[in-house]
Design brief:
22 helices; 4Fe-4S; Dimethylsulfoxide Reductase, domain 2; binds molybdenum atom; about 675 residues; metal ion binding; binds ligand MGD; seven-stranded mixed beta sheet; single chain; molybdopterin cofactor binding; metal-binding; Rossmann fold; disordered N terminus; EC 1.7.99.4
Length: about 675
Amino acid sequence: MTLTRDATGTGGTAVRVTPRDDVPANRGGLCQKGWTAAELLTVPDRLTTPLMRARRDAPLEPCTWDEALDRVTAEAGRLRALHGPDAVAVFGGGGLTNEKAYQLGRFARIALGTSQIDYNGRFCMSSAAAASGRAFGMDRGLPGPVTDLAASGAVLLAGGNVAETMPPFMRHLTEMRDGGGALIVVDPRRTATARRADLHLQPAPGTDIALANGLLHLVIAEGLADEEYIAARTTGFDAVRTVVNGYWPGRVERITGVPVPLMREAVRLLGRASRAHVLTARGAEQHARGTDMAGSFINLALALGLPGRAGSGYGCLTGQGNGQGGREHGQKADQLPGYRRIDDPAARAHVAEVWGVDPDDLPGPGRSAYELLSALGTEGGPRALLLFGSNPVVSAPRAAAVQDRLDALDLLVVADFVPSETARRADVVLPAAQWAEESGTMTNLEGRVLRRRRAVPPPDGVRTDLEIIAALAGRLGAPGKWSTDPAEVFGELRRASAGGTADYSGITYERIEAEGGVFWPCPAEDHPGTPRPYLDRFPTPDGRARFVPAEHRGADEDVDADYPVYLTTGRVLAQYQSGAQTRRVAALTEAAPEPFAELHPDLAGRLGIEDGARVRVASRRGAVTVRARLTADIRHDTVFIPFHWAGEGRANLLTNPALDPVSRMPEFKVCAVRLEPEVPPAA
Ligand SMILES: Nc1nc2c(c(=O)[nH]1)N[C@H]1C(S)=C(S)[C@@H](COP(=O)(O)OP(=O)(O)OC[C@H]3O[C@@H](n4cnc5c(=O)[nH]c(N)nc54)[C@H](O)[C@@H]3O)O[C@H]1N2
Ligand SMILES: Nc1nc2c(c(=O)[nH]1)N[C@H]1C(S)=C(S)[C@@H](COP(=O)(O)OP(=O)(O)OC[C@H]3O[C@@H](n4cnc5c(=O)[nH]c(N)nc54)[C@H](O)[C@@H]3O)O[C@H]1N2
Ligand SMILES: [Mo]
């Protein structure tokens, strides 16, 4: 998303969003959401006063900030005294600036003393992050500046529809193709992105491990593996070679549905390019085996000798506005700032010193996002939740069950700028400032830290997240200083990150300004930053990248006689995430007014479903009713529903919360469903 970075304000409410040519990641391009994002500043139901309900069944009513904050801290204090510090939980978001993400993690650990904090990035890039950490010793989206892509000879993009989800990014791929490079897209749907590719592989959802293993099998068979690189820069190849030996082309075609000649073509394009990239996005990550799935594409990249070679490599495409920075500063359940592990004694000692607390007083690791949400209000689970920057009633898997857990809480507090579906269920709603009304830093998909300046003052009655956190921390008697100034918070973040994997200690606001952004790790003010971190060595103990073998298994929930069709979910151009923001913008709701089920005419014909008719889609967890959209661009065995809407078309009523064992990512991208035409109500 680019809307946060490109706002240049003209004052008052007449904010215009203008593209900037000096931010290379964007090339001055903006997606449709960006052009109209300014409207969000003036949506009619913008929250401008705190709201509170007296009892669970009473309506939300306006109140003062003091009343709202007193209620939160009194109730949190009571629950803590009764049930211990883990009774209060925190949930953050990848849309928060680095400063806010950092402060939220610190607030949870030392103001509330709770281990129970996680964030929506767990639903986003956690599988690729885990796989990258495992293979490279570090997780940073792209291996180098995004402009490297334009000079690439071949890019394989697995599970990303960037033409709709990152339109400005698409330009780098277009430039690459104009320069003679080849784009290979792996997606069960012939998306807008796949249509612009030289080669489209269309596997069944959930079969990417088999496909990546099959491609690697062919790389080896055709003598395209870079044996010299493998020997010099990696470990573990033999185990992977043994596993992929079992993925001969005919077998992989049977599992994935991808014809053998297309696999051979993909391998030739990749293997013959002097520079190449393997990229994954959510389609090849949001699976109960998402870490192994991203990992099997990393294996492919390693066998081709790409990571650590300038202008080549593996990358994971970032999602939210601060998807990269949001996962570095400690809002993850197992993490401290600087991408440190919370169970590492040295990391605890360092961060505790910066925070002025005893390391023994820092809580340990907490529950991952879905596990946290499903523990709310249960025996031994948290009794209160403070939520900043997510709308899980729409975006969490198995959303009806999550909604029940939220309703079972003693206290739900939501800071937001609009009354999202989740905010409307809260006991206390805190009106927050939004992207154009505050400053801070974000870290983009290249690992480049960028500044975002305030364009307009927030409306009266609204506070920034830093102000909200500071007010709560003050009332809770938390140790240390709770600054509301992003620059000051960034100064502390730098110290907390020093020596960690994501080392920001040499990055200053002034440098970001002067240099157009600084790439982490940057351990000193005279250090140039690190645009290409793997050129000489990988940050693993032995300096080598690690191959990790993975066998294909089917989806956690495979199709059967009762639920014979695969469901996959994702995005459309004109809506963003849970839709809390974009469903309020007229131009966007006009472009994408309602949820739909995309299905193949052959499947529709068998089921008696007509184009535009309403269809009921049911899984073992729930049912939705949406309009059918027939298209030959999707596989015969798969239906696609975007997840941006609430109400009877809420895709997450259907999804399977089976979790990846390493990343704890839910299986958003595949489950089993049944479709039928909606039965007209009896007259
Ligand atoms: N317009 C818009 N842009 C956005 C967002 C938005 O909500 N709206 N959200 C932002 C965020 S947070 C994110 S994370 C990114 C996400 O960006 P993307 O990853 O590009 O988005 P998705 O639509 O979730 O998934 C991409 C593709 O994965 C395919 N897919 C489904 N199942 C499988 C599978 O098993 N294997 C493979 N290989 N592919 C599969 C889907 O058909 C889909 O086309 O977009 C960001 N940009
Ligand atoms: N079925 C299915 N479900 C999915 C996915 C999928 O592909 N399929 N994708 C998953 C992914 S990748 C993601 S990232 C999640 C995203 O889903 P969510 O976590 O729900 O993200 P948003 O819809 O962006 O919700 C952010 C909320 O916080 C508010 N907000 C935004 N910025 C700020 C801020 O700075 N401060 C405060 N206080 N509030 C703010 C917004 O108004 C909005 O109400 O959805 C996940 N859910
Ligand atoms: Mo995301």
